[in-house]
Amino acid sequence: METEVIRLLKQIEMEYEAAYRGINGFSVGVSRHDFINARMENIDRYRVELTELVGDKEAVRLIRSRLSARSLNRRSSTCTIVESCMTVPGS
Predict the structure, then answer these.
(1) Structural domain range at position 7
(2) Residue 35 lies in a domain
(3) 81, 83, 87, 73: which is closest to 33 by C-alpha?
């Protein structure tokens, strides 16, 4: 299970980085929106898989920890979007 958790966190991190670059890159228009939307959908799919392995609260904690370590020096709308998607009902 630990290997699967690590794999999912890495996938989420890679999708997050791609979305970040999509927001801050030079591309414009619908293709840019579609690209970022696809990354966010992938992040959610991996989040669901992770939640099935470790539960809601632990999945949120792991994802936030992984992404905050990565984006400590750069705040962006992507981080805000990801964090808002990572709230656990009732927490």
Answers:
(1) 2-85
(2) yes
(3) 81
Q: Count the domains in the chain.
A: 1
Interacting residues of 29 by C-beta distance below 8 A, sequence separation 6+:
none
- The SS3 of residue 53 is helix
Q: Which residue has the higher pLDDT, 21 or 53?
A: 53
Give a yes or no: residue 90 inside a domain: no
Work out the burial of residue 30: count CB atoms within 10 Å of its CB; fewer than 13 is exposed, 13-18 middle, 19 or more buried.
exposed
Query: What pLDDT is attached to residue 85?
Result: 52
Distance between CA atoms of residues 42 and 12, nearest Å:
8
